[in-house]
Amino acid sequence: MLTKKQVVNKIKNFTINFGPQHPAAHGVLRLILELNGETVKKADPHIGLLHRGTEKLIENKTFVQSLPYFNRLDYVSMMSQEHTYVLALEKLLNITVSSRVKYIRTLLAEITRILNHLLAVGCHAMDVGAMTPFLWAFEEREKLMEFYEQISGARMHSAYFRPGMVAKELPENFLTNLFYFCKNFLVRLNEISEVLDNNRIWKQRLVDVGIVPLELAENFSFSGVMLRGSGLNWDLRKKQPYDAYAELDFKIPTATSGDCYSRYLIRVQEMYQSVFLIEQLIKILSENTKSVMLTDMSKQLLPNRFKMKQSMEDLIQHFKYFTENLSITDLQKDLYLATEAPKGEFGVHLYALKNNNKLYRCKIKSPGFMHLQSLNEMSKGHLIADVVTIIGTQDIVFGEIDR
Fold first, then answer.
1. According to CATH, what is the number of the domain 14-302+317-402?
2. Residue 158's pLDDT is what?
């Protein structure tokens, strides 16, 4: 018979797979957990199960043909991804943009921010065990996706932003319908807050769980809600404004505790701020009715496209534009550009050669990749049930991480 001392010596940590089939793994995350009882000693994330080689696919398409790939990165905040790419292309090709195009893009970027945070908060609540906020959030997402459908014909992968322009003008009554949605949405957002903010179970599962000190957040290159939840007031919409953000009034919610509950509160407050931004943009766009398509870029590249009578030359030019697309006329150049996507700083590095209509190199910086690498530090010492909460608060989508 073994003595008590011999039994103790034989005990060792238990290693299990969390995902990729786990419903709380948010996609295709395979997490190898080393446990002592139910306490996490080590969390080792494995990625790559979704890998599609997006960057190489982009390098084999023309500038505009590459656009739909960005919709499929973070497939929860679609237009925010193409927004970054289009802004980078405009800088690369020296394209100027009309003010109305900027207002429309900013409006749709904030609609996308609400879409993202609704899913983040709803799924996070469901992971922890609250079903009702999830259903409420998805009902509002369905309404917002109808606005996507009105402008592009697609509920998710819109490909609506273009270099120098957008695909088409806003439909009739679009702004009016959006205004009424905002008024009704605030009521539903208040209901979600009332159910969750002071809920005893919700707070027990989130408060003091997954704490990220500011130093750790900076060392791991955190951005977005993950960084602001640790106390740093950093938002590219304020610090490095793009499109119409410099003209708008809004606040940046922050917190100092750095736990899961703080990040939840910030996401809810950001939805309130997005509604405030949308209402400002509705007012501006209602007063500014200049056509979207007649931008400086359109006049420069497609001077005959808008004539009432089309000649054979016009048709040839139209065909060449949609097959060959734009070309770099300067010497080879490269640039990096980032925007404040709903999940954090989303950036693209583009490298193009002279007289070429394709990118030589495209590298994508996704915020979720930076956040996922900290999962070990955030999970260590917590229970296995807390790992679900921590993954939920990171708002992980593997399209942008695996690419």
1. 1.10.645.10
2. 85
C-alpha to C-alpha distance for 289 and 283, rounded to whole angstroms: 11
State how far the Cα of 230 lies from the Cα of 380, in Å rounded to an integer: 18
pTM of the full predicted structure?
0.85
Q: Six-digit token pair at 340?
A: 């404040």
Give the residue carrying structure tokens 């089309």.
310
Nearest to 102 by CA among 212, 311, 242: 242
CA angle 20-25-28, nearest 5°?
45
CA–CA separation, 35 vs 50, rounded Å? 27
* Tokens representing residue 193 in the block: 């807050």
Largest Cα–Cα distance of the chain, in whole Å? 98
Cα 128 to chain center, whole Å?
23
Neighbours of 240 (CB within 10 A): 14
pLDDT of residue 8: 55
CB atoms within 10 A of CB 188: 16
Question: What distance in Å separates the CA atoms of residue 113 and residue 106, rounded to the nearest whole number?
Answer: 10
pLDDT digits (tens, 9 = 90+) for 203-249: 888 988 888 888 888 888 888 899 998 888 888 998 899 888 998 88
Q: Which residues pair with 363 in a beta bridge?
A: 349
Q: Say what the pLDDT of residue 402 is.
A: 83
Task: Write down the domain spans for the chain.
Answer: 14-302+317-402
- Cβ distance 277 to 250 under 8 Å? yes
CA distances (Å), origin 262, targets 254, 268, 269, 379: 8, 10, 11, 17
User: Does the pLDDT at position 283 exceed 70?
Assistant: yes
Q: Which residues partner with 344 through β-bridges? A: 341
pLDDT of 107 higher than 90: yes
| Average of per-residue pLDDT values in the chain | 83
Burial bucket for residue 113 (CB in 10 Å: 0-12, 13-18, 19+)? buried
303, pLDDT greater than 50: no
